[in-house]
Amino acid sequence: MASVAARATRWALDFLANEVKGQTNFSGYSLERVVYALYVLARADRADWASMNLIRQRYLESLESHTRALLGAAFATAGDVRALENLVEGIRDVESIERQTGQNLGSTVRNRAMLLLALVEQSPRDSRIPGLVDRLARDSQTHRYWNTQETAFTFLALGQFFQRQIGQPDYSGRVMVGDRLLGTFGKETVYFGDIPANEPLKVELEGASASVFYLLSSRGVPTDEAFRPESNGIEVKREFLSREGSPVSLDDVVQGDLIVIKTEIRSVAGNMENVVLQNLLASGLEVENPRLSSTERLPFMVGSNPDPSFLDLRDDRILVFLDLPDKRWQTIYTLVRAVTPGSFRLPPVQAEAMYNPALMARGQRGSVQVRPR
């Protein structure tokens, strides 16, 4: 009897095979998906020669650099190495594109990792590989946040690259902090902790020529002085209202009071998919579950809330997942109740495009004073 993992893998491959067979006309996003499916099927010894040849004959001019490489890798995996050489001839890097927040969730970094993956697996001595590895390493420094697609495909590509590095000649090096030796390293992974932050750090390679990669992590505690509201591509506003819809002061809330949180959000960077809005709550407040029939429905709230993809109510926050049209405010009302007397910090409202975290917004912080009834 096949294991769960084996059955799940077989079902996934059957799904990809049916997706490929069920289409003969491709364009844009569907073409990219089909090429990747053909690559996966070839890796699993289920190459679909008819579909691979169809794509190469009819849609070659529509393929981007990374999809040409993936199609070539599919041919090479199935035994036609010359096809890979022809399909990637003249390609040095991928086209620069804006991060997609929907569709195939593409980006320049993800596509670059796909190109590297195809070359490392099927043409490991290709002269373009070192440059692509170096570029991805620099991408990690210049792009503050990576999404799941970028991280996963870079992990796959660099994992294959490092696996092949194991067969390279031995090398060694040292890490210096100022003029002091922190430690030495060889082919095995090593860890150095508690590095002083006030002295220059230098990594020196000795002996044979090799590629050495390192990760430096720094941690600290953010201060109140360092906090700033921020907006890039998304704008958010939040205010607190009474039952009647008038503004309320959070400096004088009575235990048991019902408060309406009015949150407004919009995209100023075009239509945006897969956005999460996080309404972080002060500890003295508790969300009223809108799914319960006993929860109040106030007249001014009717018809205002957009239809979210998903609503997640937690003890300390309200998460709304939705798509945003371009430059149109969307209004979300949420009912909370003051349940615990005391003085509490109020975290900011935050929003983020889940597959392009650079598109984000963070509002103001505040405080809540709840006095006993």
How would you characterize this protein structure?
- The chain has 8 helices and 16 strands.
- The protein has a 6-stranded antiparallel β-sheet, with no helix packed on it. A 4-stranded antiparallel β-sheet has the order 5-7-12-9, with no helix packed on it. A 3-stranded antiparallel β-sheet has the order 2-1-3, with no helix packed on it.
- Strand 14 and strand 15 form a beta hairpin.
- The radius of gyration is 27 Å and the shape is globular.
- The mean pLDDT is 87.
* C-alpha geometry: globular
Total beta strand runs = 16
Record the strand order, biggest sheet: 4-15-14-8-11-10
Structural class: alpha+beta
| Largest sheet entry | 6 strands, antiparallel
Strand-residue proportion:
25-35%
Compressed to H and E, one letter per element, the order equals HHHHHHHHEEEEEEEEEEEEEEEE
Task: Considering the chains and any ligands shown, give keywords for the structure.
Immunoglobulin-like, 26% strand, 373 residues, 4-stranded antiparallel sheet, alpha+beta, 8 helices, 6-stranded antiparallel sheet, 30% helix, 16 strands
Question: Would you kindly provide a brief summary of this structure?
Answer:
The protein has 373 residues and is of the alpha+beta class. 30% of the residues lie in helices and 26% in strands. A six-stranded antiparallel sheet has the order 4-15-14-8-11-10, with no helix packed on it. It has a four-stranded antiparallel sheet with strand order 5-7-12-9, with no helix packed on it. The chain has a three-stranded antiparallel sheet with strand order 2-1-3, with no helix packed on it.
